[in-house]
Amino acid sequence: MADQLTIRRAVHGDEAALRALWVQYAPRIDAVVRRLVGDPDQAADVAQEVWIQIFRALPTYRGDSQFGTWAHRIAVNRTLNALRSLRRIGRAEFEIEEDTVSVEHDGERSLLAQTIDEAVQKLSPGARAVFVLHDVEGYTHEEIAAELGITAGGSKSQLFKARAKLRTLLKHLVDAPISQESSHVAHLS
Amino acid sequence: MSHISPERLAALVDETATPEEASHLAACAPCTAELAAHRKLVRLALTETPRENAPLNDWASLGAALRAEGIIAAPPAVRSGLSRRQWAMRIAAGAVLVAGSALAGRWSAGVELPSAPVQAASSAAAPTAAALFESPQAAMQVLTSAQQQYSDAAAYLAAQDTTSHFIGLNVNTYRARLTALDNIVASTRAALYQAPQDPVLNQYYLSALAAREATLKQYQAALPAKQALERY
């Protein structure tokens, strides 16, 4: 937890204090930026913008919540804004591909992900944002709706589609040990 | 009823099944397995939450950007063309700081001190302060730098043990000084949480820390040869 003295010094532009906050919180903050953005190079650019925004907003931090929680909110908000400005997310672009369960029949084994992190990167930007915010970061659908400018129902719909696609991409990790399952997937498709 | 769709199964991780869906799940092993897989996926996602990675950037690039934004305090602007009077006042102010520190050190070593000159010099330097800095940020930068220099100098003097020749100092005196200095450090630290940028509090805090370190070394040196200081 960041101590108040460090934060107060950081507010006054003390480089050592700013750096101490960055060292402590960048691993967590940058992780959520990377999950939301996907592309590593773009994620690095966005993370830089995020930290500038966090430090710019530092004088408004009142200590009502943990510094990490406060900074995390700014990070998510700034990242989503950056993605919008990259025209990667918008209302119209929140449509997810309709091939949600088609992977099994494509025969493209390369589409199967080795980790959930890798699988998430294969989702569309909108579906990725909803999944990361809800299932990884613990946001409610109402909070997601407010952040993304969609309805709570739209958030739910995106989440369930994203989960269905991830379930297929991560088949080898999440399959229950029941023999009839493969026939079920074929049946559903 | 036909099998439950993948998206509906994904929803049933969070939502309650309808009676029709519940009865189907009770009788359909494949759908039950699919629901279990979706639940496992969500648990897997939760394990990502605390996962951290190395920062995406280094401090050199972020620091440069923060400097460009003016978020990191800029180094103090060097004023050119100071008048002879301003230079004299600056030197006087520096002399006050040095003299004050030296006198404080002597006081802490138990030596009687004259008191008038410090107060007189302080009041003479005060009116010039506004003319010495271009902004509060510049003044803060100088103060931070001065605090670091003061701390370094105090550490050096402590290493030189310049007060060991004063008479009247023994183990008991050092112990009493350490106790008093600990109280000062605790009080000033608590005060700094309320007013972290207060220069007077900072000065007291740093001075007390440096004096404590010096006294601790003197205390150790004053102990009998076979008696080592384990902790204080």
Report what the structure shows.
- The complex is a heterodimer of chains A (189) and B (232).
- By secondary structure, chain A is mainly α.
- Chain A is built from eleven helices and no strands.
- In chain A, α1 (4-11) crosses α2 (15-37).
- The longest helix of chain A is centred in the N-terminal third of the chain and has 23 residues, at 15-37.
- The radius of gyration of chain A is 19 Å and the shape is elongated.
- The termini of chain A are far apart.
- Chain B has helices at 6-11, 19-27, 29-46, 59-69, 84-108, 116-125, 129-132, 136-160, 171-194, 199-222.
- In chain B, α5 runs antiparallel to α6.
- The model of chain B is unreliable at 80-127 (pLDDT under 50).
- Classes of the chains: A mainly alpha (189), B mainly alpha (232).
User: How are helices and strands ordered from N to C of chain A?
Assistant: HHHHHHHHHHH
- Strand-pairing-aware structural class of chain A: mainly alpha
Per DSSP E runs of 2 or more residues, the count of β-strands of chain B stands at 0
Count the E strands of chain A: 0
Residue fraction in strands of chain A? under 5%
What's the pLDDT, averaged over the residues of chain B? 71
Radius of gyration of chain B: 33 Å
Describe the structure in brief:
The complex is a heterodimer of chains A (189) and B (232). Chain A has helices at residues 4-11, 15-37, 40-56, 67-85, 103-106, 116-120, 125-136, 141-148, 152-169, 171-174, 181-188. Chain A has 189 residues and is mainly alpha-helical.
